[in-house]
User: What shape does this take?
Amino acid sequence: MSPGTGAALRLLAATAGAKAVAEIGTGTGVSGIYLLQGMRRDGVLTTVDPEPERQGFARQAFRAAGFAGNRARFIPGRALDVLPRLADGGYDLVFVDGDRLESLDVLAESLRLLRPGGLVCFEGVFADGRTVDSAAQPAEVLHLRELLRAVRESQELLPSLLPVGDGLLCAVRRG
Assistant: This one.
């Protein structure tokens, strides 16, 4: 994650007054640190990743950044297996940096998770410029194009594509 994308996430979490954030794709914890920095001090980050080892790295990174252990909830597993178990309307922000092939299904789950006025963000939607390249593209890029179209055409969302990092697609769930 680029510093610009991280700064944008931190700002969005702060602007939303985020107390409950779901993160799809824990990675090594970089995005989680930015999110936690922007969230309310009593906020909890729920982070989902299929690789428990990565979550261990993130847990150490959060601790090294000064966050108490109760600020993050780590759930190992595939996003589409875990998300249905999370509370409807219980999240202020959903950040997605997971499997691009699942992006449309994750969007649907995210809308269910978000409160009205909540925000969903997808990282890496430019795919290094491939989403606008007319040449033949791999399936993950085609899925990103479908995601961009679905968000743009949704009556339930107010979208914006932020040109930070490799593209940050954000959308507010209309109330």
About this structure: The longest strand covers residues 114-123. The chain has six helices and seven strands. The CA atoms of residues 37 and 81 lie 28 Å apart.
